[in-house]
Amino acid sequence: MTELLEILLSASFWAAAIRIASPLIFAAMGELICERAGVLNLGIEGIMVVGAFAGWMAVYSGLGLWPGVGVALLSGMAFGLLHATLTVPFGLSQHVVGLGITLLATSATYYAYRLALPQVTTPPKIDAFDPYAIPILSDLPLIGPALFTQTPLTYAAFATAALVAFVLFRTPLGLALRACGENPAAVAAQGLPVTGLRMGAVIVGSGLMAVGGAFLTMSAFDSFFFEMVNGRGWICIALVVFGAWRPGKTLLGAILFAAFDALQIRLQQTPLGAALPYQAFLAAPYILSILALVVMSRRAQVPAALMVPFRKGER
Amino acid sequence: MTPPSGETVLRLADITVRFGPVTANEGVSLTLRRGEVVALLGENGAGKTTLMNVLFGLYAADEGTVELFGQPLPPGNPRAALEAGVGMVHQHFALAENLTVLDNITLGTRSLWSPGAGRRAARAKVEGLATEYGLRVDPDATVASLGVGQRQRVEILKALYRDARILILDEPTAVLTPQESLDLFATLRKAVAKGLSILFISHKLHEVEAVSDRVVVLRQGRVVAEAATADTTRTEMARLMVGAEIATPEPRPALPGAARVTLRDVSTPARGTATGLRGVSMSLRAGLITGLVGVSGNGQSALAGLLAGLERPSAGEMEIRGAPSGPWTPRAAIAAGIGRIPEDRHGSGTVGDFDLAENAMLELYARPPFSRGGWIDRKAARAWAERVIDRYDVRCPGPEAPIRLLSGGNMQKLILGRVMETSPEVILANQPVRGLDIGALTYVHEQLLAARDRGAAVLLISEDLDEVISLSDVIHAISEGRLSPPFARGTMTPAELGEWMTGARFDDAA
After folding, report:
1. Do residues B81 and B30 share a domain?
2. Which of A247-256, A284-293, B334-343 has the lowest mean pLDDT?
3. B250 by DSSP, 3-state: which?
């Protein structure tokens, strides 16, 4: 028990939690934008793989870190455009298209990787983002090292969440997007372009998912492995539900999940770790997430037109 | 109202709209002056909605022009119509339920790329308009929490917020209580006094008579008559609309028999936002039409669900022909001889992609002759469907056509037919004529009366007070899950029933 308390009070534990949460925040915000506009984007898992690869590859090929993030963003937006075209104007099943995008994006990445590095057995490393200690704030006890000694990409993740919240709830554009997810006919009746709005949301959202993937190769680690996304995309879909489609709650959900994850790694090193098989620890964050999801999302207000294609002139 | 002589604000000239081989509007011309209320009358399929969609810029006309305030309206662009000052209140509200009233009103009124929402100014303007026109509604409430009447107010506010000079109202009273309708008319009068013009689509003749200055009658896509309201009569209008004299069903004396279904202090649980029943007692007697009036969402669906077998009493007793109902399921309800005409004919009445034959045996498929030794007998199903189609005048391509291709009226006739052909002892008719035109509506009413005369107990649930009053032998009002005592035909005025519907007459009313 004291060991648990010790872990929970250590700055390094929370620093790790924030670091683990960062890619989830990017990708969950991306998913949230898509779903608020009425499109479920199951391409998230594959798009994160693409982003992880594209950002890393861009830097490995000589681009700077920030341009690399830009490349990741664009690669995600490209797959977003494909997803949006199939699901919005063509109105195809969002489940089928999303899973298709995930498969396509993952295998296209594998192909590109083999084309770029035919001989390599160990993927090369890049110079990833370094932590940047924000002056003054980083000197605060506990939260200084936990929150304000992170890489710039982590700060960007939090800024993104704030921006998404502001745009969705404080601007006409956000209102129009949310209305697209609730009743697209009402949006069309105001002469607003439902198709354009939904496609834009999917494209931008997919871009954010790819940046979330890029965080893994450019900030959390410094190299690219295929298994590194490892279901984080699916977790983000659950986080959006957990957060009741609200950016703030979704952000908290991401941190909570990341804290569970960081905790299980540390618990494996305690005497408890010797007593239980390590798989039990690996599974713990997922089990806790499911429990949290069950408790939290019972009254969540699902966007009414989520997964409902809009065709002009139909009721 | 005095006929206004303001300038022409809207002129439709020779509008023709074709959908493939079908001509929806043919050479329709219409003018609307400042401060005038014009009623557009017509049956379903007469082309009213198409015309409104042309005017609102949702459809482009194949021929003809739309002029607003002397300017031609570019076709096929709702934005242009909005900006020119046309506000439309659809029959099915175009509101996002999970958003607030204010969000719904301001949606699309500011440039998408403007950095702020300008909420404070918007709220002030909404509140100003609400006071000015008597449209009381809380701007911060989510639309989902509002009743139908309040939602309509939001729609009207939406139009006024956009500085609409012309209001188009599509069947605005179809969903309102009598009191709410009067409030609406008061708002419309205020609007007209301020110089707005109103195009009022309806098929309720007494309303047209009450609010409009001029009537335009549409039939089969053409204008068949146009007259000052003062110069015409209801009978005349009805005749023009249908193209033939309408025989209103003669109220034949009822011969009440034994109670077929009896409820004693029955309660049912609330389901989500739907009200449950609270200690309801009533009996449905053979040879009587029992009418149920109430504002939508006050427990009608709970009562209908109870009779249909979808809901069980959580308290109280339910008796079928004097005996306890036993384990109560939809199948038990069918076995007890309850014929069900559900409220939502698309959702729970039919399966859209199934063909007519399958839909016609939807409640009977498990028993002979439709099912023998576990196999469906398609031939028997087909014969049955043909019988229903033939006897109940279902216009359709044939028993093998998917039912979703049918119009609402024909779909309803099939449901009606499949119920009637089994000679049910009890008929649950939930909103049986919603959305039907006068022809189909009269037919359904005739059939319900015939079933009553044959000795069936009929429960008629409707939001249309006039319909219930004209057909029912006994009327109950429902409010927040409580049921009024039964009132015999002719003992209650619509206004008195309205008071029961609002809950004001119940004992525990505050």
Report:
1. yes
2. A284-293
3. coil
User: Average pLDDT, stretch B278-297?
Assistant: 90
Instruction: Give the tokens for residue B242.
Output: 């249908």
> Which residues in chain B have their CB less than 8 angstroms from residue A186's CB?
94-96, 104, 107
Q: What is the pLDDT of residue A177?
A: 96
Q: What is the mean pLDDT of residues B36-52?
A: 83
Average pLDDT over residues A23-37: 97
The pTM assigned to this predicted structure is 0.77
Q: Is B5 exposed, middle or buried (0-12, 13-18, 19+ CB in 10 A)?
A: exposed
Q: Do the Cβ atoms of B428 and B459 come closer than 8 Å?
A: yes
Q: Do B78 and A172 touch (CB under 8 A)?
A: no
Locate the DSSP E strands across B109-237.
166-170, 197-202, 214-219, 222-228
The tens digit of pLDDT for each residue in B104-123 reads: 999 988 888 888 878 889 99
pLDDT interval class at B167 (50, 70, 90): very high
Predicted confidence at residue B287, as pLDDT, reads 92
Q: Which two tokens stand for residue A195?
A: 């198709």
DSSP string, B94-144: ---TTSBHHHHHHTTSS-TT-S---HHHHHHHHHHHHHHHT----TTSBGG
Mean pLDDT of chain B: 86
Looking at the complex, does the CB of residue A142 fall below 8 Å from at least one CB of chain B?
Answer: no
Average pLDDT over residues B264-285: 88
A100: CB partners within 8 A, 6+ apart: A43
**Mutation target vs B (from A167, A169, A170, A190; most B CBs, 10 A cutoff):** A190
Count: domains in chain B: 2
In chain B, the residue whose alpha carbon lies closest to the alpha carbon of A180 is B96
For A66, residues 6+ apart whose C-beta sits below 8 A from its C-beta are: none
Query: Domain check: are B442 and B305 in the same one?
Result: yes
Report the pLDDT value the prediction gives residue A1, as an integer from 0 to 100: 67
ipTM of the prediction = 0.85
- pLDDT higher than threshold 80 for residue A213: yes
Q: Which residue of B has its CA nearest to A169?
A: B117
Domain span at residue B93 reads: 8-242
Q: Are residues B165 and B294 in the same domain?
A: no
Q: Please provide the DSSP assignment of chain A as one string.
A: -HHHHHHHT-HHHHHHHHHHHHHHHHHHHHHHHHHHTT---TTHHHHHHHHHHHHHHHHHTT--HHHHHHHHHHHHHHHHHHHHHHHTTS---HHHHHHHHHHHHHHHHHHHHHHH-SS-SSPPP---PPPEEPTTGGGSTTHHHHHSEE-HHHHHHHHHHHHHHHHHHHSHHHHHHHHHHH-HHHHHHTT--HHHHHHHHHHHHHHHHHHHHHHIIIII-SS--GGGSTTHHHHHHHHHHHTTT-HHHHHHHHHHHHHHHHHHHHHTTSHHHHHS-HHHHHHHHHHHHHHHHHHHGGG----TTTT----TT--
Domains, chain A, ordered by start: 13-113+152-297 (1.10.3470)
pLDDT at B298: 86
Residues of B in contact with A188 (CB under 8 A): 78
